[in-house]
Amino acid sequence: MQQRLIIIGAGFAGMYAALSAARLREAHGVPPDKLQIALVSPEPTLVVRPRLYEPKPETLTAPLGPVLKAIDVEYVQGRVEAIETVSRLVEIIPADGHPHSMTYDRLVVATGSRLFRPNIPGLAEHAFSVDQLEDAITLDHHLQGLAQRPKSDARNTVVVAGGGFTGIEAATEMPARLRAVLGKDAKLRVVIVERNDAIAPDMGPGPRPIIETALRDLGIETRLGVGVAAVDAGGVTLANGDRIDSETVIWAAGMRAAPLTAQIPAERDNFGRLVVDRDLRIPGVPGVFATGDAAKAAIDDFGNFALMSCQHATRMGAFAGNNAAAELLGVPTTPYHQKAYVTCLDLGAAGAVFTRGWDRKVEMVGAEAKKTKHEINTVWIYPPRADRAAALTSANPERVTDL
Prior knowledge:
Distance between the termini: 40 Å
CATH class of the largest domain: Alpha Beta
CATH superfamily of the largest domain: FAD/NAD(P)-binding domain
Oligomer: single chain
Number of helices: 9
CATH topology of the largest domain: FAD/NAD(P)-binding domain
């Protein structure tokens, strides 16, 4: 009797869930027609989301079709519209618009996250982002068109709302991007607005002086302890009434799990992530696992939880795919763990900063850290090559990147 494992999502977690499930299937000598593994997503493409703050975002994708074919994972093109956990089926809307459903024996929800956009007047109409590929392309086209606009301080000013990882990387890349369009002698202004009293609030005091120095060296201003109250075509109004004229406002403040997770009748955290056990199984929802940005998962026994990052999503995906397949094959599962944690924050022309551990101990800065960031962004996070043996070997959950 054929069994079916469905994975929703082709991001880092979904990709590695498929690879890992196929690896376990092969390790136990089960043919693909006995355990069907299917990955559902709108496109057979990995968007290299951590790089979307860079120019030319349309180039920041990698094809998944060849590697999925090499490991006998069926690709199903379409968007999952509904999940019925009682009847164990998903409803899929393909590009032609004619919905169909697929039943599953096990389901892995790897639907990722979306930028949190609060109900701030004018935000939806006038702010850009680097959240999804389409958003980053829209921003890039806008920046490329600035040279055709009348010269003004507002044209040459970029406001980045959010002083976390994404906001800092977008802001520190911006001077070089603007000079490439407006000329090296253009008078530029880049401003980060952060409602917390410190830049990079999650980074802690260790690396913060390095980040603050990089921002000063790049001429980037910070407005701390104040939020954005409104956005319009000409700039932003801050909560304290101050006005910054700008024709480019980038929203980079907060993430939430993708809306599809709301259809799962289970506990969620404040980010909308599904609470899972150590096997990444959703308690009380038989046959369903969640992973990546869709899941709140403990990474160790000391109270630490996975973050919404590709570093955690990649390894979580490998464990989720392995464990979903293990249940169908009747073999032991492997509890998810990820004791090591690093950050490598791009600081544009000022280099980068690399930290290790939850206490953010700084290990590398400047050009050395930038070299590591480049290697992460261009090698480590890309899909394995479309070679069956190499691809399956890459997905051993115990060996998937744990820096």
